[in-house]
Amino acid sequence: MSDVAAGSKTYPVGTIAKLLLLTERRVQQMTKDGVLPRVGRGRYEIVPVVQGYIRYLRDRTVGGDLTGGENLANAKGRMVQARARIAESEADLLDGSLLQRAAVETAWERVLVALRMSILALPTKAAPIVHAAPTLAEASAVLTTVVHDLLANLSRIPVYATGADRFSGTDPERADKPTHPRAAAAADNIGVG
Questions:
Q1: Total domain count for the chain?
Q2: In whole angstroms, how large is the CA radius of gyration of the chain?
Q3: Of 37, 54, 44, whose CA–CA distance to 16 is shortest?
Q4: CA-to-CA dists, residue 162 to 34, 69, 180, angstroms
Q5: Quick one: 140 and 151 in the same domain?
Q6: Bridge partners of 40?
Q7: Is 5 part of a structural domain of the chain?
Q8: Per-residue pLDDT of the chain in tens (193 residues, 90 and over written 9)
Q9: Same structural domain for residues 167 and 109?
């Protein structure tokens, strides 16, 4: 063991790795990167190594290399941009140009329920008329008319998916009900065809 300066003792990479709770390979990488000073081939002094490691950790946590080259300023910038996007989305939601997913899903559920009810009622409504038709062509025409009527009735059902109701904190039981008076009346009187 050769000491570099009088009174300064050097240690092998294994001891330094144990002291810093790192692997020997990581100590060698940090030495290569200039973080940890080496005195000689595979020999380190404790005080400069500990100071270098503390500087490295401080730089990583206070604006240096957070994770993979990202620094504190970049992280703050991304956070500000994310907050701006959230604020823009909330403004779009309030003015009605953006809808919440739940409100759209609820509106589609109402449409699909009305469609299901109309289709299920179709045989009951069309069977007596088709049965009374004297020819196959007239039965086909009756069925075509009934289907067209069903589709026309479905197209007249107003559908409202408003994101502002859910966002503004109104009564959750009323949030999925149509807010327009004619919409509420039409939703209660869904035509079967």
A1: 3
A2: 37
A3: 44
A4: 59, 43, 11
A5: yes
A6: 43
A7: no
A8: 444 555 578 999 999 999 999 999 999 999 999 999 988 888 999 999 999 999 888 887 765 545 555 566 777 888 899 999 999 988 888 888 888 888 888 888 888 998 899 899 999 988 998 889 999 999 999 999 999 998 998 888 887 776 544 433 334 444 444 444 444 444 444 444 3
A9: yes
Q: Which two tokens stand for residue 68?
A: 């993979």
Domain assignment of residue 183, given as a range? 101-188
> What is the helix (H) or strand (E) element at residue 157, kind and residue range?
none
Q: Is 150 exposed, middle or buried (0-12, 13-18, 19+ CB in 10 A)?
A: buried
- Token readout for 157 is 């059902």
- Helix then strand then coil, in percent of the chain rounded to 5, is 65, 5, 30
Cβ atoms of 127 and 120 within 8 Å: the answer is no
Closest CA relative to residue 56, chosen from 43, 45, 65? 65
Give residues with Cβ within 8 angstroms of 154, minimum separation 6.
Answer: 111, 114, 115, 118, 191
The three-class DSSP label of residue 169 is coil
The tokens for 175 are 């949030």
Q: Are residues 121 and 171 in the same domain?
A: yes
Cα torsion 134, 138, 142, 147: sign: positive
Looking at the fold, whether 109 and 150 belong to one and the same domain comes out as yes
